[in-house]
Amino acid sequence: MLRRKVGLLGTAVGVAMLAVGTAQAQDTIKIGALTNLEGPFAVPGQDGHRGVDMAVKLHNGMAGGKKIQILKYSSDATPDKAVAATRKAVEQDKVDIMIGPLSGDEGIAVKNYSKTHPEMVFVNGSSGAQATTLQDPSPNFYRFNTEGAQWMVGLGELALSKGYKRMWLVAEDYGFPYSQVQGFMASYCAMGGHVVKKAWVPLGTKDYSSIIAGIPSDVDALVVVLGGSDAVNFLNQAEQAGIDKPFVGGSITVDQTVLNYKGKKRESLLGTASAGPMADGIDTPAWKKFVADYKAQFPDGFPSPSLFAYLYYINTQAVLLGLDAVNGDLSDKQSKLKAALAKLEFDGPAGHIKLDENRNAIGSTYITEVAKAADGSFYNKVVKEVPNVSETLGLSKADFDKMGLGNRDVPNCP
Amino acid sequence: MSAAEWRRAMNTGAGRRAWSRIPGGPEAGGAPPSSATVAMVAAPGIEARIGALLGHIRLRHVLVLAAVLVYPWVVNSFFAFQIGGQAMALGLIALSLTFLGGYGGMVSLAQMTVAGVASYMVAIFGVAGAAQGGASSLGWPWEIAVVIAVLVATIFATLVGWLSVRTEGIYTIMITLAIGVSFYYLAQQNYSIFGGHEGFNQVYAPTVLGINFRDPIPFYYLALFWALAGYFFVKYLLRSPFGIALQGVRENPRRMNALGFHVTAHRVFAYSVGGVLAAIGGVLMVWYNNRVSPGSASTEMMLNILIIAVMGGMKHPIGAFIGAIVFVLVQNFAIDIIARERFNLVIGGVFLLIVLFSPDGLLGLWAYFRDRFLSGGIQSKFKSAEGG
Amino acid sequence: MTTTSARRLFWWIVIGVPLAAFAVWALDDNAKQFCSTLLNGITLAALYFLVASGFTLIFGLMRNVNLAHGSLYLFGAYMGWIVGDATDNWFLAVGVGFASSALVGLLLQVSIFRFMQGQELRQTLVTIGISIVLADLMLWWFGGEIYSFDPPRAIYKSIPLLVIPKYPTYRVVVLGIAIVIGFLLWWFLNRTRVGMMIRAGVDDRGMLAASGVNVQRVFAITFAIGAGLAGFAGVIGGSALSISPGEDTRYLLASLVVVIVGGMGSIPGAAIGALLIGLAEQFGLSYAPTYGIVFTFLIMVLVLAFRPNGILGRRTA
């Protein structure tokens, strides 16, 4: 901290900065953690930092026999800021390992940046874009969480089992919802379901009334892949317009922020199905311990850990486990750590995790339904766990490549 | 407006007489306006011009030039690239606003949008990575892409100018803000050309004669070259008949009109000139970020350019670069000094303080202290808010 | 004379015929969707009018382009939410929304803008600074969460309207409120003494001051009302949609475009601009979802190209 302040003053008066990069004692390992502390994801970003802190604390602040020092960085969900913060961490503050960023487009940009520093390890934070690992992957970028399309695997089967044969879809018009929609539709279409119409709306659309007016009357249910305030607005307005069809939601459509937002509760959401890499109501000892640890360590945090806390937690945990495996040996361009991470397998709070050949996680997806807790608050009850979800969504590599990454028109089954 | 018409407007006898009577711009470089005016009127040979230029060089100019040339060798790659290179590129875009606002009296918020158009054109016509949304670039050689980018962005800037100068000055800021945000939404919504929300990734600076401009030090020198070129170009232009007439238009458009100047033509042409500067800045920015997306020209970025220009001071072209350096330093080191998440509060607060108490920015502050403590007495120019 | 009317006829045909053709096609294709979109456009326009009227009022008199108008919208909404949440009284929330933003507006005018009379550009820059600072302060206090209001059940359900079996009552209420506010503004500006002073000030500020009127007081009142309208719209709009960071920019932009299209400083202009923009946005969203926003700006560019001062704007010196 002090050293960096000196550095700033030094530049201000035009003094050489040679002192900054000097070698430091190798008994600590510096890890940079990049989330969002500003912009639209400032609140979840803070929870991401909690996930990092928690993983380090539960590891006693040590890994591979060395002390772990966490340096915090922030972006505002724009890729430019994410790369700028990463570059500062890597080139100015000389961190050994980098964890982050938070959102999908940021992830793609940081992955591209990681190629310019092949000597060190980059681990994802919570970003979930398919393209990060499926298009032009970086050999030193690791992602121990599953991504947006994987999070929806199994939901299509559930929709069909409920008798939803024809559905109408509304989703935001960018990468993450494309992936989510693909994860849902890949199996839903293959098993004979029909998505009769897709309404792609601009991110941040507030007024959905005219979109809602266009919902055909002959569909069985609606697929709603919106997040945050977009989801709240859509659900409110659909209720006002007298839409009484059941919903199927994306991974962030009916999460804690939407279910328990400031305002009155929506009884109509009870029973809404959705899916994701974790759920509030997972009934395993590992998850219950995770939630208890979170609550104990962060009394001012959320009522239970958010998606972002969980994702940052498992990525940080993976780094610490990897360091343990190589006894903190970062020599030879971290080659031992890279090898250890690539074959690392461990049981996180929400299931078993291992990496595929693109260094993306193969893990569990949880199918959930909105339920009411004893205290009146809403939560996501687990209906089913789908283990070992791969990035090709259970298809063979060739079949998946034939379909390509999700976008406005892929997949399609009107 | 045809080119011939414009030339006639610029070259009328009334015009010639007029500019020789109008005193030079506000303390441009501290040199007496008369010497420049004399140099122009005499239509001197190249030696005389160079002689006049050399006469203006002071020790501080040499020192600053030496410092910026040596800078990347004494700092690490982060300072060379992310501080130095970025400040020069942002400074160039802010310079276009200083030129328009400080000398033309037209504060355009769309300069970042012009830069954004140039960035997009480099990605669209040049080489970029594949995008999930399905947009693809044409993959033409970078030389062609860059030329097209600057051309298209300049035409865009001219159109913005044409739309906004038709109304009174104070509306400019509203109209340019609205145009800028509309471009942001257009880029965000259009997948076939602009690549939507994701934009273009992997847009890399070229390798020329074995020099890879992606590397920190070459990129720094590239940005520095264009920053210096832009700076001297603006300084030169302000002394040209066009520049002096533009300042006349800022002071009193009706009188300039009565004197036979085509006021609208001068203003629109100023937008074109500013457009070239911003476009070059935009090309540098896309190479700096290696990518472009709607966020590269968002409202926040548009306001950042305004903050840079105003913070540095709009009464002299150097203000844009001083503002950019301070802005980039605060942006990168705010997290170490105060909490990063309150960056906007700090930068917004500084901006507010400056427009409230020192309308001429950091340059004005410096002039204030110089006058106050070095020669005594507060000069009235500090009080004037908008030069009129 | 004849050439003007011929030209006018030409434009009516050029613009009107395709629109009429579209309306006939859309009605035939799906009457319910068309009527619903039409109503949505009009009710959204009502909300835009509420926000933009305050903006244009301030601009018309003081030449102050208040780019912090969106922040006042969000500020009023948050304040209204706090009171509404504590008292369970939505009407009180609306009142507090108006009062809190009016107070901030009054403070700004009395403590800052009063000392910058005539420096229009500097005032505008100050409002930009204020908007950046206010936005960050509000993010600090209220976080990135989503807030929504709880209006009385009677106006928060659905009713049958035209061919639509269930139309949200609240949107109709917003339309009613906008009409009432529009009428009140007309009455205030045309039938009260202060209103007449404001109108006189819009026409000739110098003359108003010369005739012995306390101009500063008129300015302060106008700024308070304009800012208050933003806060009022914050609660009304926050009840129709929801409140979250970023809404400030959205409504600032809506106000800008509405006022640029309608004519700067004109209240009827704001109404016309709001109607055009609201309809364009909803029809765009309904019939060409991805380019809905672009239509809005196309209208703005076209208006600027042919009528630089807006549809009802006047040239001012």
Specify the overall morphology of chain A.
globular
The arrangement of helices and strands of chain C along the chain is HHHHHEEHHHHHHH
* Multimerization status: heterotrimer
Distance between the termini of chain A: 58 Å
Sheet with the most strands: spatial strand order of chain A: 2-3-1-4-5-6
Class computed from helices, strands and strand pairing of chain A: alpha/beta
Mean pLDDT of chain C, rounded to whole units?
Answer: 84
Helix content of chain A: 25-40%
Unreliably modeled segments of chain A: 1-25
Give the class of chain C from helix and strand content and strand pairing: mainly alpha
Number of helices of chain C: 12
Rg of chain C over CA atoms, rounded to whole Å, is 20 Å
- Biggest chain pair contact, residues each? A-B, 48 and 44 residues
Q: What is the string of SSEs of chain A from the N terminus onward?
A: HEHEEHEHEHEHEHEHEHEHEHHHEEEEH
The number of distinct helices of chain A, counting runs of at least 4 residues, comes to 14
Biggest β-sheet strands, sense, barrel of chain C: 2 strands, antiparallel
Q: Strands of the largest sheet of chain C, in order across it?
A: 1-2
Helical amount of chain C? over 70%
